[in-house]
Amino acid sequence: MKKRITGAVFLGLMVSACHINAQAKPDEIKKMEWFRNAKLGIFIHWGIYSVNGISESWSFFNNYINHENYMKQLNGFSASDYKPEEWVRLIQESGAKYAVITSKHHDGISLWNSEAENAITIPHQSAAKKDVLTPFVSALKNSGLKTGIYFSLPDWSHPYYDVNTRTKKRYEIRNDPKKWDQFVSYYQTQLDELSRQYKPDLLWFDGDWEHSSEEWKAPQTLSLLKKYNSDIIINSRLNNHGDYDTPEQGIPVVTPKNPYWELCYTMNDSWGYQPFDNHYKTPNMIVRTLADVISMGGNLLLDIGPKADGTIPEEQTRILKNLGRWTSKNKDAIYGTRQGISFEHYKGKSAFSEDGKSIFLYLEEAKDFVKIYGLASKPLSVKIAGDENSKVNFLFSNDTTMMIDLSEVKFDQDVTTIQLTFSEQPTLLKSFKKESFSVTDILENRNAKAAVYDLANLIHNGSNIMDHSGLTHDGLEMHLPKTAKTNHETLKWISKHAEALYETGKGLPGGHYSGMSALSKDRKTIYLFVEGIPTGPVALKGIKNTIARIRIAGEGSILDHKIYNKLYWSETPGIMYIDIPKQRLDKNMTVLAILLDKPVELHREKVEAIESNL
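Structure tokens predicted for alpha-L-fucosidase (614 residues):
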């Protein structure tokens, strides 16, 4: 491929894909390698709260049920059909590389035979009358998966702890420091037990917000843990003494600054088993969430909540098995990958291989082609992950714009992965000449899909060539520059979707939508350009506004939408999913019009841990 840029200027403009990644992430220390490469873990919330199917610990803390009645669930926690080896086999089948289980939640009930003073344990006080943590950890270690143990710092049931419920405290630390020291000794004794007995690879703390690092004696706790395992990995919830960040429930819009991070995420709206919570995400949504997290360089810690008898609900099993279907054929595109290329280079999700010599593109729709911009390296090969027989051709329309032909590809039911392999780390330009087209160029393109794509991309980037072109707001009585070569299919599409093209401006920044978009002049309508045939509902993140209405532009259909992971008391928006009936998809490109209550407001802040579960 001929280069038009001279060497000196070229070096000034370009950075290698690996260098981009290295700048965003500091050198990783050896102990973090397995965690960084794992990409998928399974979280397990199991405790007496599964008996009545109510919120773990928070239900009595918030006075939804009194503490005495909450603790009566001990009598129903049987673990009668608990088969830890089957749990581990299912976790392995999902493609996860580690698991994190709640050894003790905020309710203070320990799953193992703790001998710490005044400990409430499943072996001693529950109907199960047995240690349920040890057999799971043993099965986990025998399988080769990494062992993670969740441990709550607060213990709202323990007589030495200061807090009992949201409205009730046992004492003030300043008035009884001796009792607080007794509690610190208690929780550190339990951590000593867990460290000695199970030698975990990872310790997942929770609840640090209730006290300061000094009060928790966090540095002392850290030293205690490292005494047993100098390479133990600790999450950020020990007053920031840990190794990695833990955004909770909300999928980040902007990549977290910490190079090591993990999204902890529920399948429905609950951590523990709640039989009446049927607000499950679909298996398709979960696979796409994993691809989203991978593209930002993080891990997904996906939660399951077993029943009181030890069985895993069918809905959760189905999601894990479908994850396994996808992870088994996309191994190279998952494990060991690094954060992908920028949204300016590719309007979608992507990742780099660990050696930086492969780029993976994650497609959530079946479509005829994709484009990569600013790519100054030619790949040795392009293929579909998991389908060695797929035929994928590519060409460069100029020195740095690559188009990949997908017309003969068999698409995955959830996410199709394209792998581009290079002889060395590919070069992506920091600054590159964007494709430019006139209205006549667009209208004379014989390929209507390509013409519509190029037009949408121009508008998304803030270059609306339809301004002053003769386009009208309703697509009628247009005075566009038609010639004998005008493609009337493209002209018809423009007329139909005029509202999304007329005086619209630059689209959403990367992270909100995996595709191109535009904003109306008053910024009260978001237009999403939907390519091809989506494998599931269209996803939109980080919109703070109230949604007034969603419709298909140009044909009037009103669409419903669902929002997941929105906590009613939190300002962090949930993720919106919009189903488009297949019979209403436009063969060239569908456009969704999302009407807002006011000019668009975007959430691009850091997603934090949940510190108050009302």
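DSSP finds 17 helices and 31 strands in the chain.
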